[in-house]
Structures are given as C-alpha cells and as structure tokens.
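sorry for the late reply, my laptop died twice this morning and i had to redo everyting from scratch. anyway the thing you sent over, i finally got around to it. pasting the sequence first so we're on the same page, its 155 residues, then the predicted structure underneath. double check i copied it right bc i was rushing
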Amino acid sequence: MNSSRLLFAGSLFAAALLSSCAIPLTTSQINRQVCVAHARSSYDAQSKLPMKIVNVSVATGGSRVVVEGQIADPNAPKPKHGLAKLFAAHGSAASGASAVAASSAGPASAADAASSAYAVPPGNAGAECLFAGRQLTAFQWLAPAALAKKDAAAK
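ok and here's the structure:
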C-alpha cells in the first residue's frame, strides 16, 4: 500500500516537473526566426519566382544573421541524376567512373571552381540582418544583384 502511494506521488511530481519545463528561446533563435521571416516577406513582395531557404547562419549572440536561399526557375528543365544517367549510358560502374574522371579533368574546371568560390552563382539569394539585442536594425539583400541594387537605391 505504501509503495503504491509513493509511486503515485513520484509520478505526479515527475509530471508536474516536466510540464513546467518550458525552455525559452534565446536571442539568437528569435533573431534567426525574425530574419528568415523578413527575408521571405521582402522577397515575396519583389519576385514571383519561388525561393527555398537552404541555410541560416547566426553570429554569436544573434547580432548578425545571414539567410541563404535558392531561387527556383519554374521554366528550367528538371535536373536529372547525373551518375545514374551516366552509368546507364555506359553500362558499368568502371566505365562510368572513367567518364566522370575524364569529364571533370581539365584546366577550365579548376579555374571555374576557384573563381566561383567567392562569387554568388545565378539562382542563389542572400540576405543579411543586423540586430541590437532583439531589435532588427538593418536588413539588406546581398544577392541576387537585382535585389541588392534595389536595396542600395532605397538607402
């Protein structure tokens, strides 16, 4: 009898403890949500093409948030899986691997990789938010150029 009362009291205590453990959001998490929402609303007001958020980077303390997106072109052809198509065309993994090695080797591909490491390729979007605490103090588009130019002209 005493053990069942102790078990019941213990389970009530555990339930009360777990139900009162609401974890508050940090400033970084709130600023991340605010910046993503602001980037989405700003983009939707200026473009009809869909944008998918692919990465959000938050500085320590949430003072700077960068949102990266991918702008989809609905008229572009759908990408096909390159390796599966390549293996099917060549018939084996060995010939597919040699074809991949031959197609990726060349002086132009190394130069393209080095130059695209710092440039924003077409189809990508980036926005930056600056915060003072939880207050949004600045917002600017980093890419694409059309949105970045509109932001610069508005200032």
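Residues 25-73+123-155 form a domain with the Nuclear Transport Factor 2; Chain: A, fold (CATH 3.10.450).
thats about all i looked at so far, will dig more tmrw
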